[in-house]
Amino acid sequence: MEATNEIIFDRLVYSCVFEKHRGFEEFYPDHFLGFQLAGETHAIHDQGTIVIKENTVVLVKKNQLIRTIKYPSKSGNYKFIAITLDKETLHSYALENKIVIKKRYEGKQKMFFEPNEFLNSYFISLAPYINKTKKATPKLADLKVREAIELLLDSNPDFIYILFDFNKQYKIDLEEFMNNNFMFNVPIESFAKLTGRSISTFKRDFARVFNSTPKQWLQDKRLEEAYYKIKHKQEKPTEFYLDLGFENLSHFYTSFKHKYGLTTSQVK
């Protein structure tokens, strides 16, 4: 059965599946707060895999790439609720509450798990909107996002340095970032934003660092990794082509033959 992502209101999404489902790569430009109602989510990012277990609340930092695998519970259900903490609401909240941060969050942690009774109750309070027994007006939707912000700050005051950092993303090391994230199949625009660059600056810096275009380098890098998996790990393309950013097997086989002059079965 297909996975369903239902938008309850513009910042609240309810996800439900009944069998293991591999999600696509996604770029999250905003922070979001999530609750695993049933089953578990395996979130894969550049630092590894994090497992979000049932009845867990998680705060996910903005500006990152994540690929998910959704696993239903033994009862056959997977349910996840995510509410976006959008920049406009955070800006407004900061102005109203005179919040000005003096330092940036320096940690590398990308997800924060908060086993908090009030946050759990908050997500349970969203049930009427998910079950369609109550409709969320724009004003009510805004209040629910603000309530989430209040509960997060109450659970951990240090979240102020994450939620209200409105400084522009500064340039990060392009070579390190690309080598850690080449397997994510997202637009070049997302890579540019994540490294703190405009499209033109990203392409210019990329050519200087890699002596190649982003499109050509990404394909070569993915194919080199594929060759390694086939030759040294004896893995089959069907097992990894999606994980390396290829959209379909046909494209992978054609690209592999063009680069190496061999089919995958001829690699020894």
Question: Could you please describe the fold and organization of this structure?
Answer:
Residues 172-268 form the HTH araC/xylS-type domain. InterPro entries: ExsA-like_N, Homeodomain-like_sf, HTH_AraC. One of its GO terms (molecular function) is DNA-binding transcription factor activity. This protein has 268 residues and is of the alpha+beta class. It has two domains: 4-163, Jelly Rolls, CATH 2.60.120.810; 174-266, Homeodomain-like (Arc Repressor Mutant, subunit A). Helix content is 40%, strand content 22%. It has eleven helices and eleven strands. The strands form two sheets. It has a six-stranded antiparallel beta sheet. β6 and β7 form a beta hairpin. α7 crosses α8 and α9 (214-232) crosses α11. The longest helix has 19 residues, at 214-232.
Compose a concise summary of this entry.
The chain contains eleven helices and eleven strands.
Give the key terms.
40% helix; transcription regulation; Arc Repressor Mutant, subunit A; five-stranded antiparallel β-sheet; sequence-specific DNA binding; alpha+beta; 11 strands; Jelly Rolls; six-stranded antiparallel β-sheet; 268 residues; globular; HTH_AraC; 11 helices; DNA-binding transcription factor activity
